[in-house]
Amino acid sequence: MKLGFLAAAIAAPLALAAAPAGAAIMFSFAPGLPSPGVGFVVVNAFDTAAGITGSGFQIKTPPSDSEGAPPANSIPSGTPYLSVLGNGSATISFNSPVTAFQFDWGSIDSFNTLKINSTGADPIIVPGSNFTNAADGNQVSPGTNGLFTVWSTAGETFTSINLTTSGNSFEIDNLAVGVPEPATWAMMILGFAGVGATMRRRRSVMALQAA
What we know:
Blueprint: H1 3-18, E1 25-31, E2 40-44, E3 52-60, E4 81-98, E5 100-106, E6 112-118, E7 124-125, E8 146-152, E9 158-165, E10 170-178, H2 182-210
Antiparallel strand pairs: 1-8, 2-10, 3-4, 4-9, 4-10, 5-8, 5-10, 6-7, 6-9
């Protein structure tokens, strides 16, 4: 199993804890890890603007400049990426509704806003607010460059995402989709919780034996 998927599963309990009671749409952020993870496939590497609607966005290539910086976690590096400029907007529709998606989110800023359009409630994610992180636009720190994953737990499907920002810039790359069953996510989370509990018990036994 790839490290990116494991890290997303580890991060998931943090997202669950931060989500509103009864929420059925969850998200996680795995610092420094790339898209795609296991069970996901890239559907848009942003080599062109095909499939994107809106205004005030660009398909950019490195190096960084005042209008964007490539997500530091993207693999391979040096490839094109999507940059939404200040007061711009970009909407990306999925070819068919999906129950999970992820992308490389780079140099995350508090003025970035992600709207997730779905068959359920349409959540709006704002870094530094309901999505807590440094959100200071750092172009290389894992804390602001990582794998952002969204999934449904109650059968909702996602139809599109909308990226807006009040300042330069909102940068993403390697949009990937997947259809992991909610039970799979739950089992992963419980599995990691069990591993943690086992390790704690082993440390307690070793401490007693050494006493």
